[in-house]
Every structure is written in structure tokens, then in C-alpha cells.
Amino acid sequence: MYSFLWRCLIKRSSCVAAAVGVLFVAFASAAAEKIDYGTARLERRLQAVAIQEPLVIDGKLDESAWSQAAVARNFLQREPREGEPATEPTEVRLLYDRDHLYFGVTAFESEIDDIIISDLKKDFNPDQGDSFEIILDTFHDKRNAYRFATNPGGAKWDAQMSNEGREQNVNWDGVWYVQVRITETAWIAEIAIPFKTLKFRVAEVQTWGINFERYVRRKNEDSHWAPVPRIYGIQRVSLAGTLEDLREIEPGFNLKVKPYVLSMLGKIGEAGADYDGDIGLDLKYGLTTGLTWDFTYNTDFSQVEADEQQVNLTRFSLFFPEKRDFFLENSGIFQFGAGPDRGPAVGGGGGGAGPGAPPRLGGITEDNIFFFSRRIGLDERLGVIPIVGGTRLTGRIGQYELGFLDIQQDELGTLKATNFMVGRLKRNILANSDVGVIVTNKDIQDSQEFNRLIGADANLRFGQYLNINGYMAKSYSRVQQPYNMAGRFGVRYQDRIWEIRGSYTDIQQNFRNEMGFVPRTGIRDFLGYFGRAFRPRSINGTIREIKPHLQIDYFLDPQGNLDTRLIDYHLPLNFQDGSFVEMGVNATLERLNRPFEIRKGILIPPGVYSFNEAFFTGRSSSKRKIAGNLRWSAGRFYTGYRHSYTLGSTTRPHYRFNILTTYTHNNVNLPQGPFKTNLLTLRFNYSFSTAMFLNALIQYNSDARQWSSNIRFNIIHRPLSDLFIVYNERRDSTSGDLLERALIGKLTYMWSR
Known about the structure:
Layout: H1 2-10, H2 13-27, H3 37-43, E1 45-47, E2 70-72, E3 76-79, E4 90-96, E5 100-108, E6 131-137, E7 145-150, E8 156-162, E9 167-169, E10 177-182, E11 186-194, E12 205-216, E13 221-224, E14 241-247, E15 255-268, E16 274-286, E17 291-299, H4 325-328, E18 378-379, E19 383-384, E20 387-397, E21 400-409, E22 418-429, E23 433-444, E24 450-462, E25 466-477, E26 485-494, E27 498-507, E28 523-532, E29 543-546, E30 549-556, E31 562-575, E32 580-592, E33 596-599, E34 602-604, E35 607-619, E36 626-637, E37 640-654, E38 657-669, E39 675-689, E40 692-701, E41 706-718, E42 721-732, E43 738-748, E44 751-752
Parallel strand pairs: 1-14
Antiparallel strand pairs: 2-4, 3-13, 4-5, 5-11, 6-7, 6-12, 7-8, 8-9, 10-11, 12-13, 12-14, 15-16, 15-43, 15-44, 16-17, 17-20, 18-19, 20-21, 21-22, 22-23, 23-24, 24-25, 25-26, 26-27, 27-28, 28-30, 29-31, 30-31, 31-32, 32-35, 33-34, 35-36, 36-37, 37-38, 38-39, 39-40, 40-41, 41-42, 42-43
Helix pairs in contact: 1-2
């Protein structure tokens, strides 16, 4: 069988599909389920209890109405012992009135002094400390939901979710309220979610999907009210319980107006200081219970955190994530392809190559993004480009999901004004599958230059374990050339033991997508991933899971010649306390058709290069006040040798204050010339309260020969309304000379009804 797979990887895509089928038949043996999850979710039902007077949100649960509430209890573990009762009980009470849905959460704790509060900031990381989460499927379509989480410090995290987590909008912000109190036996959270924050159908009687999750960090234990298999999470909303008999409730009118006022004092080099001010506006209007129309004028993102710098030792562009709120909100609707199922993380699953892993030389097709909003308002040479304004329509109508975005970018210097448009339509089919189309258009005004793309995709799920996905796309430009298409077909099977993935991607040499991130064209990529999870009982007091895996990635050029080959052999171990180690070998073959300038003046000549990297990576448990991570690697590198390491630490002297440090060093020794790179990142976060924060990001990059600082002070003076004071500075690391400095003040105010 393996010789058959080897021949297939070299030959053609049809063989890849056949190989995946062979592996599926050979290995599709799921572990025996302890419980029937389909039946269990039907048994988890809450009868909504209405009250006439609003509750006081103070974390005390002392109103008499709470004694009448429906109660969710008997949580079951997802980790570490799937299906067994939670070791720390949780009770959730639920009430509602005409305006709010109320939750009273009692998270019992046998060792109350050992609860872990990781952070107080908005959109904290729920996995870093004790936390509690609510998921609400308000349309009861078993696909989409709202998520709300809090911790024993009263911090807030919220998100919108589509297609059971395939698309996550963690930058969605809703108005809701929470107060937390810690007693001798439990931490208690009282939560109120206004109905106007949510979208749902207008009906006399409402039935919603609902689930709850409790995370006990010191035990690394995750439990749910409606149980979920360990290979999934609370996002599996098709397994959620049911909230019944919500009566006489209505979604809000959903009109939100958010103006801003900006003041900035800046200085570049030795020039004098320059003052500037500005105003702008964002408007959001709910056309229907499912559709939202957004408008933006004179859009500004000066409060957004600076990018984390990277060191590039590859031939391809680096990927920097989008951080601007306007583009992040509802961004999942514009996602084209399979999302997180489209391929493994860099280096493979089960932790990949670990913290600090550099980008691989060729295994980056999983980063192909057909609409990448950083193409709007940002330029590698010119920096920030003004955005005049734009509009966005997103949401759902029946079984259809749609998105439309149109942004007008202003001119800057020699760069002409440009219009960007993207349209997306998806149709939900079967139990949890969808098919869709996408259209993008970049039109440079006062010129004949344009770039357009049209594509169709399908994401199909069969049962709980098998996913099949694919897409086809074609690009158009003023000078049209043949070989301008891209396509992909992928299969993924994952149960409690086996994870098997295979895909074939073809991106032709003249495929141009100027509104996307496509770092490599003119390739055919054959990818296979095989992993098996072990949970040995003999050592499960220490080790939770061992998941060895193999990933094979073949890139062929348009003539069918091998261009890049990546073979990764990894052995990760996940420990019961949340710590992790992984070791392995990343084997690479690269064929260079032209010289590769890896550093200024250092050219690697054309040729075929084969080299292996051995690595070890690990991180300690984040439940401790001081946690660390490291990655070490060494091996041949093109014509020479490379040795690199990354050291990181997280220090939490108090839950209000944490310090994150990362240092990466590369020592590359080539006959053409040796060089070293150093990258230092320091983060300081202090939370005065759940509404006042101070954050600093300080970076040193030896490649750029710069120190940079980004310091942000933020006060949430009312829901979804902020005051930002931001200080940015860049200095030459050699001379210490000032390159750029700016002090920015920005005030936003949200009015809604």
C-alpha cells in the first residue's frame, strides 16, 4: 500500500483521492464511545422562566427569582476523561425578562485559593485560566452561534461563530454585563445579555440551542453541560442542548452610530513636530433579523496594535494577520475554501513545529487567502493609506449566507485612488455543509488596470468524522494570459484515534489575486498527513496524549518537475498539566532555478539542495506564575548550516499584570557569507480594571536594525465606547537616532437603540 501511495504523490491528483480512500478504509476505526452524543443532547433541555422585574447584576444571586430558575447541572468532561462527571460541580440558573437573558453561574471549587485568573483585559484568553462560557444558537440551525465567556476576575470575551467553528469572528463585540464574586466554596458569575445584542427570528415562542463550558485550569479539565467528544469543542453546536419557551421577546432595532475624534502629534527624523486632527464615523443598521448593513467614513485604525515583526529566511512573502476591527468583524463570511480544515498548521498537527517555529520553505499553500483585507489601506512601501469610506452587507436569509464589501481607498503620492469590492454567497446544504461563490474586484481609478477573481467552493461534512472540500477560481486582468486558474481538493478524516488528511492544490503560473495572499504560483501541491493519538493508561497520570504524525508535501512546477519536497516526522507529547514537548525532523528538498538572495549581498546559487532540520520544542504549564517555552533546531541549510533557538516566558506576578518575552536567534553559516539574526519581543499588560488597560509592545529586529515601541492606554468609558492614548516610536538600533514618533489620542462614542 505504501509503494502505491508513493507513486501517487509523484503522479497525479486522482491518485491522491484514491490514496485517501484506501487509508480511510484501512484506518477508520473510531474508539468506542462512552455515551451516545446525539441522544445526550436531546436530554439536555432548559425551560425558560420569565420574570417581570429586571435583576441587579452584582454577582450575589440573592434575589428570590433565582430560586424559580431553570438549572443546568451534571456537567460531563471532555478532557481529560471524556464522558465522566466533572470533578468540580457547576450549576447554571437561567431567567429572562422582556429585555435581558440572565445567567447565574455557581462554579464550585474544592480548592478556592487555587483558582487561576489569567487576565482582566477585554477578549482575554479563556484557556489560560479558569473560565466559563455560554454558547447560544439563536436561530436553532445547529450551525451558527454567539459565544460569551468570563473568568473569576469578571473579564469578558465574546465572539460570533459560523458553521460550527469553521469561521470564528472573535472580534465581534456585543453589549452584555457580568459581575463576579468569589466565596469560600465557589466563584459566582451573574450575567445579563440584552436581547438587542442578539439576532433571532421574530416569533411568539422561541427555541434556541444552548450549551455551557467550564474550564478548571489547575486540573486542565474541560467539561460541558451537553457533552462534546474530546476531538471537538463547544463550537460543535449541533450537539448543544435546548432552551425552550422563550416568549414575547424581540431583537433590538439594531441601529448603532459610532463617531470618533482623533488628535495626533507626530515627528519624522530630525524634522519638526507636526500636528493633525480628524473625525470619522461608523454606522451599523440591522436591515432584518439576519442582515446587517455597515457604513464607514474616513476610517481610522490608529489605535490598532503594531504588527509583531518576523525574520524571513524563505523565498516567499511573510504573512501578517489582520488586526483592524472593521475588517475583522464578520470576516468569516468572506472566507473562501475550507478554513481551518484546509490543512495542518505549519509543521503538521499536534503542535506543529512548536512555539517560535520559522515559516517552512515551501509548505505554505494553507496560507492561500482569496480575500485578504490587509491589501486595503496598507502598502509595504508607503505604510498606511487613507480610506475614504465604504460599506458592508453581511448576514443570512433563510439557508443563504451573504457578504458584500466595497471600500474606496484614497490616493497617496504616486499611488492612485483604488476601489476594492468583494461579494460572497453561500448556500447551506445537508446537515452541516455548504456551497458558495466569491467575486473580487480591484479597480485602479483613472487607469485601465484592474484585477478580478471569480470562484466556487464546497465544504461537505459526512457524519461526525469525514470532511471533503474543494474550490475552483479564475483571475482576470487587463492583459489576460492563459493558465490563470487555481483549484483544490481535500479530504479529512478525524476520530479519537486517527487523523488523516490529503489534498491536491493547483495554482497556475498566471493566476493573479491582488486582493488575496497567494505567496506561490505555478505549483501543484500534493499533501498527505497521517497521525495517530495514543492515551496509554500506564502513564496517564503524567501524559495525556501522544500523537506521532507524518506529513508529506510535494510541490511540482508547471512542467511536472519536483520543485520542493517537505517531509516532517514529529512526536508530540501533551501532559496532564497542560505542558507540552515535541521533537522531530523536518526534511527539505529545494530546487532553485535562479539565485536566491537570502540576505543583502549573500546569494545562494541555482541548484538542488537537500537538508534536514532536527528540532525540539516545549512549553511549561501556563497555570504557574512563571511559564516558559523554547524551540531549538539545527541542521544543514542550503550550502551550509543553520542553528536557531527561541526562548520565551510568561510572567504573571498578579492577575492584573503580565509580562511576555520572546527572543529568537538564527545563526546561519554559508560559504557565500555567514550571518546572524536576532528578534526580541517584549509585551507588558496591566489591567487597572475590566474597563481600563495599559499595554506595551517593544521590539528589536537586527535585520531592520530598529527598536520599535507601541504603548496603548485604553479606557472603556461606556459599552463599546473607548478612549485611546497611543504612543509609537522607532529608533535606529545602531546609532539610537529617532526615525519616527507619534502621540495619538482617539475618542469613540457608541450610540445605539
